[in-house]
Design a protein that fits this description.
Layout lengths: L8 E3 L4 E5 L2 E5 L6 E3 L6 E3 L2 E6 L4 E9 L7 E9 L2 E10 L2 E10 L1 E2 L2 E4 L6 E9 L2 E7 L7 E6 L7 E7 L7 E10 L11
Antiparallel strand pairs: 1-6, 2-3, 3-17, 4-5, 6-16, 7-13, 7-17, 8-9, 8-16, 9-10, 10-11, 10-12, 13-14, 14-15
Protein name: Regulation of enolase 1
InterPro entries: ConA-like_dom_sf, DUF1349, UCP022704
């Protein structure tokens, strides 16, 4: 699927980006972030997100390639209803290493992290939303998809889904997104990792 589709909508379009074929290359702006309230007490909705419309149920996946260097550098996939209801998931640099991270926001944000044992500079993320449930999966090769998170997620008649990147502490993270797929929900068993 092309990132140049006419139905893609930028939230906080970065100053520098290009789309060619099925690849999207972006360079993050300074101080970009998505967060609501928890622990820090602030709201940020300045991260970069290219959202594509979906129906009420879907599976979306994409490949992410980037060199994470500074605290909170992050890139991955986002599913969004509005500024108060969204999830972002991917790699985020925290405590000196690349972490598999997800933030689910339903009014306020949570944050879940785990060490990522594969190449953080090249990975795939998959999000499935159906019947009020969110399923997040990560892959090192685009074939084997371990579960990273299963959670309730607000039901909506439509969502926006697509690539997301933020650099709260700096500018200049270059990320290439590719192999974007948006389909009806896969409907696989929870322990089917294909």
């Amino acid at each position: 699927m092309s990132f140049r589709r006419s139905d893609g909508v930028w939230l906080n379009e970065p100053e520098r980006w290009t789309a060619e074929g099925d690849s999207l290359r972006i360079v993050t702006d300074k101080g970009s972030d998505f967060w609501r309230e928890t622990h820090y007490g602030f709201n940020r909705d300045s991260g970069h997100f290219l959202g594509f419309p979906t129906g009420a149920a879907f599976t979306a996946s994409l490949r992410v390639q980037g060199q994470f260097q500074a605290l909170y550098d992050q890139a991955g996939i986002m599913v969004r209803i509005d500024a108060h209801h969204w999830v972002k998931a991917g790699i985020e640099l925290s405590d000196g290493r690349a972490m598999l991270a997800s933030v689910l926001t339903d009014g306020r944000s949570d944050w879940a992290t785990a060490p990522y044992e594969h190449d953080a500079g090249d990975f795939w993320m998959r999000a499935t939303v159906a019947d009020g449930v969110l399923r997040l999966q990560v892959s090192a090769d685009g074939k084997y998809w371990p579960l990273t998170r299963l959670a309730p997620f607000p039901s909506a008649s439509s969502y926006l889904v697509g690539p997301m990147a933020c650099t709260p502490e700096r500018a200049g993270l270059e990320v290439v997104f590719s192999t974007f797929r948006l389909t009806p929900p896969l409907g696989k068993d929870l322990h089917d990792l294909s």
